[in-house]
Amino acid sequence: MLQSKQWLCCSCQEDSERGQWPRWKANAGKRNAISTSQPIARDLGRIQRCLVAPRAAPSSEVSAGTSVRSLEVIKEELMEAVKGTDMGIFGVPSGKKDHIERLIAELEEHNPTDSPTENLEKVAGEWTLLYSTIKILGSKRTKLGLREFVKLGNFRQIIDVDQSQASNVIDFRVTGLGLLTGSFTIDASFKPVSPTRVEIKFLKSVLVPEQLLLLFQKNYDLLLSVFNPEGWLDITFSDEQLRVGRDDKGNVFVLRR
């Protein structure tokens, strides 16, 4: 006999909870009382289904597990998708760009931080840019010498919440000058203006060493215009590992701690 409810299918479980457990058993007895030769295949079929189909887990348990798993999958897919893109600065094929931006939008839908500017300590520290829609293309790239002998390195962002300041540090490597390395640093202040938005103001910029400054001197304003963060930024996703921002110029940024 079937005594354990965990082996009942959904309809049989419902019968049991109404005090009619099992309905097919009671009905079978009535039918046999009328005619012992009447087929009971339908009742046997229900018995077999009960034996092989355990009751499904509550939908809330399934959805909760799926939500956590989905976020991790999206993050992994996004980090894999942005590999080899040079942070997106020199352009990305349209198909790959669309794929990356779909993953970013999907990630934003799972944002665990509703009001990031009210908890800025969670974004404090150093971040590395993985991908952005800032572009250095065509004549702009040629003028900055970024086609052959000047190479972009890491793009880092250091956020000091106590001082309400952020520094963007772009590393460069110049292969034509004995592997000269240097950096371009832009300091800016910020202040929250909504639960998700900060207003950003440019403070100063520094290009070191002097050899790198001389190299970019003619096009220094162009270089600054590319990376100047002044304006506003919406923090659209933030957790312990990744952060996504969208600015007033239509750019999107993905950074990893």
From TrEMBL:
It is found in: Plastid. It comes from the Eukaryota. Keywords: Plastid. InterPro entries: PAP (IPR039633), PAP/fibrillin_dom (IPR006843). Transmembrane segments: none annotated. GO terms for cellular component: chloroplast thylakoid membrane. GO terms for biological process: plastoquinone biosynthetic process. Residues 74-255 form the Plastid lipid-associated protein/fibrillin conserved domain. This is Plastid lipid-associated protein/fibrillin conserved domain-containing protein. It comes from Klebsormidium nitens (Green alga).
